[in-house]
Amino acid sequence: MIRIVTFCNKSYVPVLKNWLLALDKIGLKQHALVITLDNETHDAIDFCDTLHRPIAVEGKNFSGLWQHRLEILDELLQSYDEIIHSDADAVWLRNPLPMISSLNSNITFTQGTVWPHDVHTLHGVVLCCGLFYLNNSSEARHFLKQVRKRVENDNDDQISVNREVASRINGWQIKEPLQIPFRETTFTTSKEVMRSIAKSESDDLNICVLPHHLFPRLVETISDDVYIAHPLSGKTLDEKAQCLSELGIWWS
Prior knowledge:
Elements: E1 3-8, H1 13-25, E2 32-36, H2 39-44, E3 49-52, H3 63-77, E4 82-86, E5 91-92, H4 97-102, E6 107-111, H5 117-123, E7 127-135, H6 138-154, H7 157-166, E8 169-173, E9 178-182, E10 185-189, E11 194-198, E12 207-209, E13 228-229, H8 237-246
Parallel strand pairs: 1-2, 1-4, 2-3, 6-12
Antiparallel strand pairs: 4-7, 5-13, 6-7, 8-11, 9-10, 11-12
Helix pairs in contact: 3-6, 6-7
């Protein structure tokens, strides 16, 4: 069974409960696995499968947390054939598992906006670390290993993931590209799945990017087409609750 994995600390327990309610609405709650990062969260969650892996986050240096998360995902790939990492504020509204399985890709990401800027400048496309799929393959495990090495210097998993991918591809196959305005620039997307272009025939990295309109980061309203909405919002619990409430996807 594919596992849908999220990480949570005590500050975000209401967001986690909202995430689980959404999964329950579409019949996927049994796939959920919550990684509890502190004792308070562990004690608060008794209604789904959990894995307790506590870590103290010191100050604003999240490098240790990103390393911790990547290590646990690597650990889970030893036990499960497929995992999807999902931030708790990525709200599941429709079942995307058949779509993702049909791609026959070892690694699948949703799309970010423009961070990190160097990768956005290179290809016009960046990947979002808030929602991605990995299968238990040598390609996916090696990818995680390389990203973990980069995080030691980058101190940011979004930077590390995107730079690792950018170093190993020649760009993206994009059918009917669209430009979405964002701040002072744009980013490139498509109504179709985008696939990585390998640098050589021997390169085994095969990555898919899901269509932004079905898995949006920029969200003004929720259409019936949306599978998972992961709207940009502030970092605090109140900011996230307000953002999701305004979109009508807060039930916690």
